Amino acid sequence: MTVINVRVPVDLKNRCVKRSQSEGMKLTDWITRELESALSRKERVD
């Protein structure tokens, strides 16, 4: 594992926190899943 620090607007973070909680996930796990999903979609297009 490694650490990525990302600065985002407060409202974006709050939306991500709410979404992750609604799915019963930790924020870090939710962000990781979403990034992996976005990369997979992109790789299929390329």
Written account of the structure:
With 46 residues, the protein is mainly alpha-helical. It has one domain (10-45). Helix content is 70%, strand content 0%. The chain has helices at residues 10-22, 27-45.
> Hey, roughly how much beta strand do the residues contain?
under 5%
Biggest sheet overview: none
Which structural category do the helix and sheet elements fall into?
A: mainly alpha
Contiguous uncertain segments of 5+ residues: none
Distance between the termini: 27 Å
Helix and strand sequence: HH
Average of per-residue pLDDT values: 94
- As a whole number of angstroms, the C-alpha radius of gyration is 12 Å
- The domain tally reads 1
Shape: globular
Give the helix level as a range of percent.
55-70%
Give me the secondary-structure topology:
Layout: H1 10-22, H2 27-45
Structure summary:
With 46 residues, this protein is mostly helical. Helix content is 70%, strand content 0%. It has helices spanning 10-22, 27-45.
Keywords:
46 residues, 2 helices, 0% strand, mainly alpha, globular
